[in-house]
Design brief:
Shape of chain A: globular
Mean pLDDT of chain A: 90
Number of strands of chain A: 2
Organism (chains A, B): Romboutsia weinsteinii
CATH class of chain A: Mainly Alpha
CATH superfamily of chain A: Farnesyl Diphosphate Synthase
Low-confidence stretches of chain A: none
Protein name (chains A, B): Polyprenyl synthetase family protein
Keywords (chains A, B): Magnesium, Metal-binding, Transferase
GO molecular function (chains A, B): metal ion binding; prenyltransferase activity
Number of helices of chain A: 16
Largest sheet of chain A: 2 strands, antiparallel
Strand content of chain A: under 5%
Distance between the termini of chain A: 16 Å
Oligomer: homodimer
Number of domains of chain A: 1
Order of helices and strands of chain A: HHHHEEHHHHHHHHHHHH
InterPro entries (chains A, B): Isoprenoid_synthase_dom_sf, Polyprenyl_synt, Polyprenyl_synt_CS
């Protein structure tokens, strides 16, 4: 497991319990299916989404069994999208470990992702409280898929705007952060104002988190990332640092970004141009704006131990350099 | 639309309404997403699963809006699995039309399938009656994915038994037929005995239907199928005709089925050996057993117009040669 939560044993314990639920759901006669899901589960992800569900659920009438089950849904949905993303990226490694598609083949990864989607809806259907319904959850999940498709459609498109980027990021990342916090609060019967506040906190954490992730693709080493750096660029995914640098100095990119395939030397060159045109710093400024909004809203939450935990982990998360 | 239902205008009208629901759900700012779903919807599928949901719902307190919505869920789930199956098969054509993966690429097909899964759960979550819950539905959906994975894992495995084949077929095809009928009956408050009867009818229709489908891969022309015949064999999917022929005459297959790639000539040769060893006739006998069971149970249903329709279409379906 990731050491991310080691300063918060109370959350670490919950995450262990959530992992056990996922492992139990992955139990399967077919040992390859089971072990590929367990591999993914134990690959050292930070388990942010389930932790957020647990934390938010502590602000209301905490129901251990239900909160943990819903937390597992958030992680299984995330895992399903990761498995399918790795097919698209033809990624060999994630978090330093071989991906499902690399180990068992693309075809297998398609179905393992589908199986995870079904598992996630199954647990959601059996644990959500009847009053609340799961229409919000399933709407969010649709929007996440749309975000992925938008990203795919805008590959190698040098006309992508900051607005396009923010919209896509909102869909593919921030929505699930919002849902993870919201579902925890709503299912423990927090009042509507608190639920909405959690939704917004999730959005702003998610936006800042994804922008920082995209910056790290430009600045971190392969070892720090657990996968190849410059990978987004290679895949034609133009993220905020590049978009901002292009906006500042369009002419320098004119003759570079007109293909749909870059050599490693070209990638290094583009990364340097982005850095020289303040792409990293300007992107960081936007990430900070989202972070500040998140912190402002977290401070509006009722003052308790879990608010402090949330403040602590969000600080840690948004200041990470790996 | 397929002409399959033209003798039953009462069902044809319902299917039109179900198609409109799917089209409405597919509405999307991104026109490529929308049109790829509409292409699939209008590609001339028989819309069996939604028709079954409608028919079964007529045996209870028929609620037009709810039955049609649930019928659309059955078809959207089916569409999602088709899009993903075509990735695995690298299929260029389905029902004589270009597949999503062939037209827009594999990556796109992964996400379009995911989007359809999410749509399907979304409609399910918002229309299922609260009392019934959707745990049965989501369990079935998981089992369907497992059936697909099992099929994938048993590719080019010449030790696959009749039992393995029937189990896999039950998962990947019959379960959704069962669910389509069951959900219609259960959501219109039929009594439990009738719901169970529909479940069994769906199982037996589904088994017979899939066996016949697998036989057609050996006997029909490309034009009749709307895709390449012999495709299962080429993909290493050993179906009932081959399994039965192997059982009857193992030695003749010994030196043929020991690779994981066949030329067109080898495919033709295997098809002939299967035919010469009664693989087709013996498989047809098993299909007929399932058909008989289905007819026996349909006759146990309350005598009404919809029972007659069900008898009529199942006869037509199980006697088809295309």
């Amino acid at each position: 497991m990731s050491k991310f939560w080691s300063d918060y044993p109370i959350i670490e314990k919950e995450i262990d319990a959530v992992s056990s639920i996922i492992a139990k759901n992955a139990k399967c006669k077919d040992k390859v299916i089971e072990s590929s899901i367990l591999d993914l589960l134990n690959s050292g992800g930070k388990m942010l989404r389930p932790a957020f569900t647990i934390i938010a659920s502590k602000f209301g009438n905490y129901n251990e069994e239900r909160s943990r089950a819903l937390a597992s849904v958030m992680e299984m949905f995330h895992m399903a999208t990761l498995v399918h993303d790795d097919i698209i990226d033809e990624a060999e490694f994630r978090r330093g470990k071989e991906t499902v598609q690399s180990k068992y083949g693309k075809n297998y990864a398609v179905y393992i992702g589908d199986f995870l989607f079904c598992l996630c809806f199954r647990v959601l259907a059996t644990t959500s409280s009847i009053e609340r319904g799961i229409d919000v959850d399933t709407q969010v999940m649709s929007r996440i898929c749309l975000g992925e498709i938008e990203q795919l459609n805008s590959r190698f498109d040098k006309n992508v705007s900051v607005k396009d980027y923010l919209k896509r990021t909102s869909g593919k990342t921030a929505e699930l952060f919002s849902l993870s916090l919201y579902i925890g609060a709503a299912e423990s019967s927090c009042d509507k104002k608190i639920c909405r506040l959690f939704w917004n906190i999730g959005h702003n954490i998610g936006m800042a988190f994804q922008i920082i992730d995209d910056i790290l693709d430009y600045t971190a080493t392969d070892e720090e990332l657990g996968k190849k750096s410059g990978n987004d660029l290679k895949e034609g995914i133009y993220t905020l640092p590049l978009i901002l640098a292009m906006k500042k100095n369009p002419s320098v990119f004119e003759n570079i970004l007109n293909k749909d395939n870059y050599s490693n030397e070209e990638i290094d060159m583009i990364i340097n141009i982005v850095k020289n045109n303040n792409g990293i710093d300007d992107a960081m400024k936007i990430a900070n704006k989202y972070s500040q909004k998140a912190f402002r809203d977290i401070n509006k939450l009722p003052d308790n131990e879990y608010r402090d935990i949330l403040l602590g982990v969000v600080t840690k998360l948004l200041e990470r350099s790996y």
